[in-house]
Amino acid sequence: MSIRAVDEAPLNKFHRKLTWACAGGPFLDGYLLSIIGVALIGMSNELNLSTGDESLIGAAALVGIFVGGLFFGPVTDKLGREAMYTIDLAVLVGGSVLSVFATETWQFVVLRFVLGMAIGADYPIATSLLAEWVPNKHRGRLLGILILAWYVGAAVAYLVGYVMAEIAGNDAWRWMLASGAVLSALILLMRIGTPESPLWLVNKGRTAEAQKAIRKALDRTVSVEELLAASAAEQSVERSRIRDLFHGTYLRRTLFCGLFYMCQITPMFALYTFGPAILGSFGLGEGNESNLGSALISVVFVLGCIPALRLVDRVGRRPVLVWSFALMVVPLAVLGGGHALPMAVVIVCFCAYALLSGGPTVLEWTYPNELFPTSIRATAGGVATSISRVGAAAGTYLLPISLDRLGIGATMLIGAGITGVGWLVSFAWAEETRGRTLAETSAVPGSAPPATAAEERRDSLRGSRLGRS
Description:
There is one protein chain. This protein is mainly α. The chain has two domains: 4-194 and 238-433, MFS general substrate transporter like domains (Growth Hormone, Chain: A), CATH 1.20.1250; 199-237, no CATH class. The chain contains 22 helices and no strands. Helix 2 (13-47) packs antiparallel against helix 3, helix 2 (13-47) runs antiparallel to helix 6 (105-131) and helix 12 (248-273) packs antiparallel against helix 20. The model is unreliable at 448-469 (pLDDT under 50).
């Protein structure tokens, strides 16, 4: 299904505001998932946390993201993007506030799990809303900006943690956790008043509301006939249900989105959550020096996304994804040298990995939103997120154990192997979606029904509408 007034609209103030508001969620996600890595240093000293405790706290949010994405994706497709758009931010505010007062390991685990559920919900909500509002030729770049915001949030988290630790020492860990509540509240205010997705409204047959939303947001008038035709096409062509994600072409797309996503973030999340510990294992000082090193590497992750944002709309999704994964294996393999490597080589390799990861990073939310129809778009995004978090949670839980038992060299080689699997998945299954409408990218080849079916449905909808009037 396609609405030309949306697909071909010039970028305006509404698009920019919506992009910033949607990016606020990923920014918070990166911040909240990274600040815990800095806070864990002070938490461990004050609360006498064991290695197992640290692993549970670090992985709890990722398990929550798995549950949140799996559950709230379908809820978003059913209730709408707007309805869920602010609820998940309110949960982030509450969970961050309560974290300040936690004193036991189980309390941190529960709260981090709840925060993870809200984060997992936000991924399909914000990305599907933005994908359904932005014009085709800018969709890859604007969706990529969302994941760029994740890296900015992570970098800010390490910088805030570094400054707080410099001022108040490791005892500042509660203030680090409290900072997430302030940022969540500010972004919650930014999101209030965001209009519902016109594609979702048309999908539900609410054409008058879609017409009003487009006029208000884009200052463009769309005829009822065009929206009725779009609704007819949606009702006759895209009768997709959750179970369709696990059959035929959509099963392959589901596995592709989830697996390449998982292979991208499993090493990355482990690096972010335990960045200071990893750099410390290589000999980069201890304590706050490692925090500063993690902040600098986070900045490089941001820089790596910038050229990728341009390339995905100019060169295409598939070549950017395949070549990025192939090149990312190299620095991780070199880091397999472990303690024998000079510190300069370690820093260069981490920075190279961060720069090269920009390709798959900016496509993590682009592909799930382009390869599935409106009726299951948020569900697909949630499922892909959940699949990715299986590996991310396992990697985050096992990383400190691997550092203790296998050493830093073997741990980095495992990361290289996971990245290699990501290349294989991308080479085999990545599709090219550049410059096409969401209706075209989400269609299953050869499955489109005759045009008369859509026309009959359109006539039926028009008759019902005239009858009500």
